[in-house]
Design brief:
Layout: E1 9-14, E2 21-25, H1 26-32, E3 50-55, E4 58-63, E5 72-78, E6 81-83, E7 86-95, E8 107-110, E9 116-119, E10 134-141, E11 145-153, E12 156-157, E13 161-166, E14 180-182, E15 191-193, E16 219-223, E17 226-230
Parallel strand pairs: 6-13
Antiparallel strand pairs: 1-2, 3-4, 5-7, 7-10, 8-9, 8-11, 11-12, 11-13, 14-15, 16-17
């Protein structure tokens, strides 16, 4: 494919004559090449260093210098969800090829719970030969909530990384209904574990069925490890009054 300058050359599509990925003259490409098909990474190479050039009046792919990529940073955390208190390991990574200016940059972790961690490295950028690309910190969350953490390196800032801190789960208070008892002596509306039931030996209760209570056939049950009432009476109050008035 004849060429006189790099502008005469192009890479892309499939050459219908050969069935191969095309690299050659731009005029031929415009007329004959199938542009709806392509060869992934053929024109640039996996590392992005391949370039289409005119070499001795022939279009060819040559390996060039790595392209300069502007720096950017990402953030991740492990775990990103758990019960309080939660210890989270944050990791931020610096990407790109123009990194020297960030070797001594200020580091600022913001955890969104009112706390942050700031580090200003004590170094001289003129003497730096190695450029760190990974930054890590461990943070402890003490209260439940949703926290959007970020990391800043100089003038670069990551996107939010959300941490979900759940309340501490309580152990089950019951295994079966026999572990539970009415929470009130008369006209009970809820239940507690047997060890916390009220002392009712000297209490006299009226023999009426009050709406919203476990009167008239109701009982205690153990549901998902918690004592609760069931079989609530839903009929009318015997005097037409609301439950807490019917005893007056």
């Amino acid at each position: 494919m004849y060429c006189e300058s790099d502008d005469d050359c192009i890479c892309g599509g499939i050459d219908p004559e050969t069935g191969n990925c095309f690299v050659g003259n731009r005029n031929y490409y415009d007329v004959f090449v199938n542009k709806e098909q392509d060869c992934p990474d053929f024109c640039t190479g996996i590392d992005g260093r391949m370039q289409t050039r005119c070499m001795r009046n022939k279009c060819a792919l040559v390996r060039g210098e790595p392209p300069e990529v502007a720096p950017w940073i990402s953030i991740a955390a492990e775990p990103s969800r758990g019960e309080v208190p939660l210890s989270v390991h944050f990791i931020a990574r610096l990407h790109g090829t123009i990194l020297k200016g960030y070797a001594c940059a200020k580091q600022n972790w913001t955890f969104a719970d009112g706390k942050e961690y700031v580090l200003i490295p004590e170094c001289d950028i003129r003497q730096v030969t190695e450029f760190p690309t990974t930054y890590e910190v461990l943070h402890h969350y003490e209260l439940p909530g949703l926290y959007n953490a970020t990391f800043s390196l100089g003038n670069l800032t990551t996107a939010f990384y959300s941490i979900i801190v759940l309340p501490e789960s309580l152990p089950p208070e019951c295994d079966e209904a026999s572990d539970c008892a009415p929470a009130q002596c008369c006209h009970a509306a809820d239940c507690v574990i047997v060890e916390k039931r009220p002392y009712c030996n000297d209490v006299f209760c009226t023999q009426v069925c009050l709406p919203g209570t476990m009167d008239c056939g109701g009982s205690c049950a153990c549901v998902a490890g918690r004592c609760t009432g069931q079989g609530f009476y839903t009929g009318a109050a015997p005097t037409g009054k609301v439950p807490w008035q019917s005893l007056s």
